[in-house]
Design a protein that fits this description.
Elements (H helix, E strand, L loop, with lengths): L2 H13 L10 E4 L2 E13 L2 E10 L18 E7 L5 H15 L2 H6 L1 H10 L8 E7 L3 E6 L2 E6 L2 H12 L6 H13 L2
Antiparallel strand pairs: 1-2, 2-3, 3-4, 4-5, 5-6, 6-7
Helix pairs in contact: 4-5
């Protein structure tokens, strides 16, 4: 391979997509076997921000609404960080994105659940992994490096929180779209 072609291929792999399988093909969570749908990388220039994998229960039918945030539908995200982020930065970014993408009355009606979730957020270092998942029989759970930070049952607040990765408030729309591309094509 010529050097110029190699450099172009390397740049493309750094800017988009996960270059190697970062996450396992399946997970066992609270008695549910979940299968990986897709994984995606969010980078700014050459700086890896996050690698994310989406898992679902393959035995469930996709929601009639076509919305992955449907509360009857199990979903699991693993987010690996390529940089350090403070808990305060996580909270500010989450609240800002939610305020920019959800009506004030919806956020006000779900403020207790959003506040609860923000209270679970901890600082991360490069290589740390958050897992955030919704299972209809146990609610929304957030774990950091395998240690559960908290769980809640509110369907509405959980869907709003999950929209930070899978919905209208996504931190990275391109990462969200890449994650959901395979999921949508399985309809």
């Amino acid at each position: 391979m010529r050097f110029g072609t190699y450099c172009a291929a390397l740049m493309l792999s750094l800017i988009s997509g996960v270059t190697a399988e970062t996450f396992p093909a399946s997970l066992d969570v609270n008695g549910h076997t979940l299968s990986k749908v897709n994984e995606a990388r969010y980078s700014v220039l050459w700086k890896r921000i996050t690698d994310v994998a989406l898992y679902i229960d393959p035995s469930q039918s996709q929601p009639e609404s076509g919305d992955i945030l449907d509360p009857a539908y199990s979903k699991y995200l693993t987010i690996e960080y390529g940089l350090s982020v403070s808990a305060e930065r996580f909270e500010k970014m989450s609240r800002d994105l939610l305020e920019d993408n959800w009506p004030a009355d919806v956020l006000a009606a779900n403020s207790e659940g959003i506040d609860t979730f923000c209270g679970w957020l901890r600082a991360v270092q490069k290589g740390d992994r958050y897992a955030v998942y919704w299972l209809p029989d146990s609610g929304l759970t957030l774990a950091l490096n395998g240690e559960v930070q908290g769980s809640m049952a509110s369907r509405e607040a959980s869907a709003i929180v999950l929209s930070l990765w899978l919905g209208r408030a996504a931190v990275s729309e391109s990462q969200r779209d890449e994650l959901l591309e395979s999921w949508r094509s399985d309809k």
